[in-house]
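Many introductory courses stop at the sequence. We go one step further.
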Amino acid sequence: MKIVVQRVKEAEVTVEGKCVGKIGKGFLVLLGVTHEDTKENADYLVKKLCKLRVFSDENAKMNLALKDVNGELLIVSQFTLYADCSGGNRPSFTESAKPDKANALYEYFCEECAKNDIKVEKGIFGANMQVQLINDGPVTIIMEK
């Protein structure tokens, strides 16, 4: 499982022109699932994400976590995080999990994040989504388990 975490001032995801998820200050999280991933992988990343200290404290040091700043999460499934471009110019996605497994782990990840008393918004799994964000910093961190 791989996540790309972007610290944002705001972010939203739309599908067919309709907003399906929107947050203010927090993290936009792009989540990729591979066929070997388990709930244990998700649990590890949820814990790391929810405690990730990349918001500025009173001394302008990245020292505060989501809950410390009343931050929110917008979590978007993105199978292309497991693209393999080593064999040519057209990516292979054979490392990405099959849709049923990927969706189940995506939903589980979102539910576990919400259990941390953090507002969670989502995209729509498998949909053609448009994501807009104002990256804060910019701060972008990649985590994998």
